[in-house]
Backbone:
């Protein structure tokens, strides 16, 4: 494989790499340029997104770097989602970080670096490149979690994330070495060939360890324990980032590993995925009920949603993968919207509030914000006619079509439990006596972002179905 | 678009506009639209009726749309216009239009008038749907529609608990009848493969003698179907057994009683039997059942009517009794006479109800006749209208010369019962004469108690309230009250006023109907030749021989009902005019019988013991033991407890310590690995 051809296939990553280095230099030269660098980072992400978007419709698949990576519709779709989510996380951050005294140039640079890692993750076709991408993303994320160093909670979140992430990486690496040892290769294609034959216990252990390591990244139960603490402790824009882009990357990575490398051993990984999906759905739903902190609530919500997404993977069918991608897209819009609303909860002194008690009676003082928040909550609960319903529908549809009826039934039953806490938010906002702690918002960026995301989650979102349907179908086809 | 479309859909349109648009157009516009709509419908209806009478119209079916297309079941929504429909059209639209107008006065002080008028028009639409039905499903649609409107209107004053209870009772009792009707429709469809009325009637004679398995028995098919359908008719027409809702329905405003519970809805059962008369003619057994139920209802309701003191309840039982007449006329084969009585009854019974409403209006919502008396001089127009109604219902007239409306129709029924050859015709005849006597008695009792004698208003709480309220506005209120007590003429100083013009005009029009409807229309309805020509344009089974025979009954038969009427009048006069304590003495002399009548033959008590209380007991059992004890405990509450327990556990496990988190991760990993080891 020619180097030039390979490089042309990873243009988004190249753009982002050079941008990250250039921005770092700029930051060194001009210390207080956080906002400028943020804007430039968003521009870089936009340029990278444009390259991926241009290749979206095509089903072409081109390996790069001698089979370490691949440029295909699946990777491009995931990257586009990641870049958009990262750009939103950058856009909404400045005010928050300025208030915390941490609007430094490293924030956009770290996000961009993380995006490079995620780009590698979703296009990796080798255990080595997989690990490189994963670690690049993770290391950026550890730093981002503790970005507001002056805040003890932020530092704690970073440390917890780092230690547990290290443990998960260890599991992943151990599993990778087992797989390499028994399959004789780190390439997904070669592993897939080895899997076609009788598989021994060693290979199965390898699969289990790799899946465990990846389950940590997508915060699926029982590897979810870090999520509430990190989500709560990390600065809110960072939490919004964690809940969106890295989720997409890790889930996409999981899909590719499972289908391309372990595809023929359906019985082995399917059991694990089903168990993890069910545990995530149930723990995400049940755990959220007792929460008083809205960011923790969103953490459990993301655990819960990951469970639903994994139902699509459990099917192992093309329809299931397409459904997962649809769900992921909608999920990103929902969860980013939820965090945008959270970030508008400021009291009169400009402090950010994130407790249930603070939003009591919000509909009386901030009707538009309460309405947007309600849209995101209803959408997360999957209540028609909001767009969140569509995601759940296609996933359950795929599960039923693949014969996983019990899984679909349990999922639907658990989503009823989940509806409880989403509706509780709405109830507190609309029916409780006004606490009157939330002041008017002065941040037009947040208002506009929230408005756009709310529109996307509203029934207007259904207009996107034809396009989304084609893109996800083409992307899903790339894995088979 | 023909006039029948306008007649049927104009009331619906008016109801929708008035009901949904009342906030935008206001009360007066709502009332105007509905009333004008009904008068238009009425004006369009009469030419159709006249056309059928003089033979210039023939039966036709006006299509609306294809309604249901499902496998073998296929039928259209269409409007059937024939002689039978035409009769109902004029009755419904005329009485409804007059009642709309009357309500302008009667409901003047009510804050919810647009709702009331919308319900009235909605009812009219449903009733028109019922009578224009060309298939049983459409008839059932109208049937349920009038039931709904009746429920809404009985409970119109929904803040009154008794009105709500009456509305629910009417609805529930009608469900029993409706179940019969539904089973009848299912059976008809099963047997004939169609719900189209003309097709059913054409095919019915071929099925005579067949039998069918029902509840484990072999029964005659036609008898079963007819009786099931008749059960539906019994519910809607308040026949014995399913009659208990009608007296309670008097909780609704009086115009409602006049329209729904006298002139139109309650006659739907009679109409249905007449519409399906060729079907009923295939089963003598079913006709016998109809005869016996009708005759028994006639006598039962008349006896109860003797002792009621509420003016509206007397008229309600009277209605029930007159419906019995119509049914036994149908049962003995005189469908034309049944429809004729339906027609005349609509006029004079609506008149009596509206007249009673006028009295109630004048007496400040007092309905107890014991507190009336001497009203003749105060409200003379109402008095004369009621007098016309009473003369009509008691059947005043001279044999061979002429008389009021009821004279023609009721006597025709009694004579037809005598002339008929059906099994129970003499039972029906005997009861018809006896009930005529009772009818005369309770009708005149009502007149004497209300309009004659001396005022007894002072004991009435309503009148006392009225005077008290009046006194408060008066500067010399206190002295004034004292002078009231000083009135020893029984008036308590109250001055009843004649009703306003919107209420008097309908009374006048209906008075004309009560006087002339029999004389003018008897030819078309019951004379052998002209009746045959008239009914030939409909599905009604016109028994020409019976109509001939009816006119050739012995003279004593013809005179019997007149004699009965005079006897009743005489007894009432003696008891309520000459001797003041006769009613009390009679009541104490026949105390058990009096109590039996007063308590309406203990039907309500019987139903309470047999159905209501066991139903409540079961309901409570299922509620306390089944729903709360089992379903709630192990269902919602149980799962909620599990969830909240799980939530506490999850929160507890979320300790915040790294080693806990790492431990959970490793446990998960170990579990997965162990599982895989065991599996392979």
Residues:
């Amino acid at each position: 494989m020619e180097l030039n051809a390979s490089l042309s296939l990873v243009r988004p990553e190249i753009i982002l790499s050079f941008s990250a280095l250039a921005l770092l230099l700029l930051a060194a030269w001009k210390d207080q340029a956080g906002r400028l660098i943020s804007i430039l980072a968003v521009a870089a992400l936009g340029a990278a997104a444009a390259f991926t978007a241009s290749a979206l419709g095509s089903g072409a698949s081109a390996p790069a770097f001698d089979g370490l990576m691949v440029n295909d519709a699946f990777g491009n779709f995931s990257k586009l989602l990641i870049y958009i989510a990262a750009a939103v996380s950058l856009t909404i951050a400045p005010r928050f970080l300025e208030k915390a005294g941490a609007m430094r140039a490293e924030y956009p640079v770290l996000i961009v670096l993380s995006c490079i890692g995620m780009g590698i993750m979703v296009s990796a076709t080798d255990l080595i490149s997989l690990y490189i991408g994963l670690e690049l993303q993770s290391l950026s994320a550890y730093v981002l979690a503790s970005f507001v160093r002056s805040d003890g909670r932020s530092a704690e979140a970073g440390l917890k994330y780092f230690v547990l992430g290290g443990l998960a990486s260890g599991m992943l690496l151990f599993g990778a070495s087992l797989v390499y040892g028994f399959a004789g290769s780190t390439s997904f294609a070669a592993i897939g060939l080895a899997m076609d034959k009788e598989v021994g216990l060693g290979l199965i252990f390898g699969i289990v360890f790799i899946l465990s390591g990846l389950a940590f990244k997508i915060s699926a139960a029982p590897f979810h324990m870090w999520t509430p603490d990190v989500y709560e402790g990390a600065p809110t824009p960072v939490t919004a980032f964690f809940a969106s882009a890295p989720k997409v990357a890790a889930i996409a990575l999981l899909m590719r590993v499972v289908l391309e490398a372990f595809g023929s051993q359906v019985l082995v990984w399917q059991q694990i995925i089903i168990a993890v999906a069910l545990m995530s759905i149930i723990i995400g739903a049940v755990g959220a009920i007792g929460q008083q902190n809205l960011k923790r609530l969103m953490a459990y919500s993301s655990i819960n949603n990951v469970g639903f997404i994994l139902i699509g993977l459990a099917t192992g069918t093309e329809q299931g993968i397409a459904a997962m991608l649809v769900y992921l897209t909608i999920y990103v819009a929902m969860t980013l919207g939820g965090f945008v609303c959270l970030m508008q909860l400021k009291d009169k002194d400009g402090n950010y509030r994130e407790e249930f008690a603070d939003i009591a009676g919000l509909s009386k003082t901030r009707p538009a914000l309460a309405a947007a928040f309600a849209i995101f909550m209803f959408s997360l609960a999957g209540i028609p006619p909001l767009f969140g319903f569509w995601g759940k529908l296609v996933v359950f549809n795929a599960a039923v079509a693949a014969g996983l009826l019990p899984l679909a039934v349990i999922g639907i039953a658990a989503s009823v439990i989940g509806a409880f806490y989403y509706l509780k938010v709405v109830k507190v906002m609309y029916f409780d006596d006004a606490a009157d702690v939330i002041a008017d918002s002065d941040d037009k960026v947040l208002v506009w972002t929230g408005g756009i995301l709310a529109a996307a989650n509203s029934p207007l979102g259904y207009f996107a179905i034809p396009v989304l349907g084609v893109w996800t179908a083409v992307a899903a086809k790339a894995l088979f | 678009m023909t006039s029948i479309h306008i007649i049927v859909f104009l009331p619906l349109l008016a109801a929708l506009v008035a009901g949904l648009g009342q906030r935008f157009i206001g009360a007066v516009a709502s009332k105007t639209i509905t009333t004008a709509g009904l008068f238009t419908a009425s004006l369009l209806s009469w030419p159709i009726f006249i056309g059928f009478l003089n033979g210039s119209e023939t039966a036709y079916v006006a299509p609306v749309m294809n309604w249901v297309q499902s496998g073998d079941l296929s039928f259209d929504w269409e409007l059937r216009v024939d002689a039978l429909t035409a009769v109902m059209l004029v009755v419904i639209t005329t009485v409804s239009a007059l009642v709309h107008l009357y309500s302008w006065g009667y409901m003047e002080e009510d804050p919810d008038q647009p709702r009331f008028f919308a319900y009235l028009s909605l009812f009219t639409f449903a009733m028109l749907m019922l009578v224009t039905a060309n298939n049983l499903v459409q008839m059932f649609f109208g049937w349920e529609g009038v039931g709904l409107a009746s429920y809404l209107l009985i409970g119109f004053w929904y803040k009154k608990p008794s009105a709500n209870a009456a509305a629910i009772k009417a609805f529930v009792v009608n469900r029993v009848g409706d179940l019969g009707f539904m089973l009848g429709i299912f059976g008809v469809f099963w047997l004939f493969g169609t719900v189209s009325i003309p097709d059913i009637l054409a095919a019915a004679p071929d099925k005579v003698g067949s039998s069918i398995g029902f509840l484990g028995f072999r029964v005659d098919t036609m008898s079963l179907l007819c009786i099931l359908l008749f059960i539906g008719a019994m519910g809607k027409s308040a026949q014995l057994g399913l009659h208990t809702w009608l007296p309670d329905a008097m909780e609704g405003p009086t115009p409602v009683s006049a329209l729904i519970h006298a002139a139109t809805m309650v006659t739907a059962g009679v109409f249905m039997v007449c519409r399906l008369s060729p079907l009923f003619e295939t089963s003598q057994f079913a006709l016998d059942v109809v005869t016996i139920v009708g005759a028994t209802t006639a006598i039962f309701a008349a006896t109860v009517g003797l002792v009621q003191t509420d003016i509206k309840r007397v008229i309600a039982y009277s209605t029930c009794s007159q419906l019995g007449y119509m049914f036994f006329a149908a049962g003995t084969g005189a469908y034309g006479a049944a429809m004729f009585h339906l027609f005349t009854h609509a006029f004079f019974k609506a008149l009596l109800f509206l007249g009673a409403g006028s009295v109630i209006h004048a007496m400040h919502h007092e309905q107890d006749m014991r507190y009336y008396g001497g009203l003749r001089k105060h409200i003379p127009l109402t008095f004369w209208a009621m007098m016309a109604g009473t003369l009509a219902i008691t059947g005043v007239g001279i044999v061979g010369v002429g008389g009021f409306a009821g004279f023609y129709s009721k006597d025709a029924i009694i004579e037809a019962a005598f002339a008929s050859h059906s099994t129970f015709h003499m039972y029906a005849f005997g009861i018809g004469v006896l009930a005529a006597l009772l009818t005369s008695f309770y009708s005149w009792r009502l007149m004497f108690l209300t309009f004659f004698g001396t005022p007894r208003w002072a004991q009435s709480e309503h009148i006392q309230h009225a005077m008290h309220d009046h006194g408060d506005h008066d500067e010399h209120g206190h002295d004034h009250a004292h002078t009231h007590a000083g009135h020893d003429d029984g008036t308590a100083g109250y001055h009843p006023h004649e009703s306003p013009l919107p209420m008097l005009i309908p009374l006048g029009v209906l008075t004309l109907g009560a006087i002339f409807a029999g004389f003018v229309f008897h030819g078309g309805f019951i004379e052998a030749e002209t009746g045959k020509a008239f009914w030939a344009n409909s599905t009604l089974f016109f028994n020409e021989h019976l109509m001939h025979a009816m006119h050739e009954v012995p003279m004593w038969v013809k005179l019997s009902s007149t004699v009965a009427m005079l006897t009743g009048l005489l007894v009432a006069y003696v008891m309520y005019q000459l001797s003041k304590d006769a009613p009390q003495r009679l009541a104490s002399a026949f105390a058990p019988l009096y109590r039996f009548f007063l308590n309406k033959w203990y039907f309500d008590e019987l139903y309470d013991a047999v159905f209501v209380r066991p139903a409540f007991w079961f309901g409570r059992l299922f509620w306390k033991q089944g729903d709360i004890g089992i379903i709630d405990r192990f269902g919602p509450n149980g799962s909620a407890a599990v969830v909240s327990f799980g939530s506490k556990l999850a929160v507890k496990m979320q300790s915040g310590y790294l080693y806990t988190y790492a431990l959970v991760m490793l446990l998960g990993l170990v579990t997965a690995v162990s599982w895989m080891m065991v599996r392979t």
Chain B is about 75% helix and 5% strand. The CA atoms of residues 622 and 628 of chain B lie 8 Å apart.
